[in-house]
Amino acid sequence: MSKVKVGLVQMTCTKDKQENLDKAIVKVREAAAKGAQIVCLQELFTSLYFCDVEDYDNFDLAEKIPGPSTDALQVVAKELGVVIIASLFEKRAEGLYHNTTAVLDADGSYLGKYRKMHIPDDPAFYEKFYFTPGDLGYKVFETKFAKIGILICWDQWYPEASRITALMGADIMFYPTAIGWNTTQDEETNQDQYNAWQTIQRSHSVANGVPVVSVNRVGFEQDGAMKFWGGSFATNAQGKLLYLASHDKEETEVVELDLSQSDYMRKHWPFLRDRRIDSYQPITKRYIDGD
User: Please, what's the b/e burial string for 87-110 (b: 16 or more CB within 10 A of its CB; e: otherwise)?
Assistant: First the structure.
């Protein structure tokens, strides 16, 4: 299948987990009605972004994967014949938690999960308090419509992660994400941060010759201190923007991706072919300074 229609669901969230799940299902239905074959939900869509504080009570938001949320979404995936990419807070075992994305195929089957590899610890993003780094490695999933690679939010800054995912055969790379602006910042800083975020992900598309789909949350959280900046987008295999969401409203959009462009781009801009893999051993060092 050379052309695939992907749905991007950019939405606000509340404190009510069931309300958020129900809302996401409505949005998936909207995307499917517009022709979407693969629908991507934003990072941790069943809750507010709780990692702004270190609070043990927030661990109660976690669930098993597969579990209640994937069970509900599998029914929807099968009914609508769509693939669903669902980012959830995973309780793996007592005291062991991950930031995880589950993939449900168009027949309702559970294909597996990817656990976020890179975990931030910045002001208002205290994820190391909650999440154990992923131990499944990088993953691709063979769905009905395309072979998809999944990375999550902080992973988006790392070309190594996108490269490995592309080398595993991903036709499309999806990034469920949650990132925003501190509302005390000036507009120039806001724009610089957003441009950096979008640019690094578009560069993954260019370097690897694959489309990138990034889905971010939107709206004010953290008692108004954080404005999640939305700005979800989709690119083609050359990094060209095919869709760009607003910074301040919910959107459910469907974008058609031409997967045949990957072969064309890799033939005309043969970055994968020309890699000097024999010279890359030093990249596994923390820093190249002799120690």
Answer: bbbbbeeeeebbbbbbbbbbebeb
| pTM of structure | 0.97
Task: Determine whether 43 is an active site residue.
Answer: yes
What six digits make up the tokens of 117?
Answer: 């590899």
**193's tokens:** 């941060």
Rounded distance between C-alpha atoms, residue 58 and residue 73, angstroms:
23
The pLDDT assigned to 122 comes to: 87
Q: In what order do the strands lie in the sheet with 218-221?
A: 180-182, 226-229, 218-221
CA distance 101 to 93: 17
- Sign of torsion, CA 263 268 269 272? positive
Determine the pLDDT at residue 34.
98
Average of pLDDT values for 156-161? 98
Give the model confidence (pLDDT) of 84-120 as tens digits.
Answer: 999 999 999 999 999 999 999 999 999 999 999 999 9
Q: Among residues 132, 140, 93, which one has the least CA distance to residue 115?
A: 132
| Backbone dihedral region for residue 245 (phi beyond 0: left; psi -120 to 50: alpha; all else: beta) | beta
What is the widest separation between alpha-carbon atoms in the chain? Answer: 58
Catalytic, out of 13, 40, 51, 153 = 153
DSSP 109: -
- Which of 17, 43, 113, 253 is catalytic? The answer is 43
Examine the pLDDT at 139 and tell me if it is beyond 80: yes
Question: Does residue 127 carry a catalytic annotation?
Answer: no
For this structure, is 153 an active site residue? Answer: yes
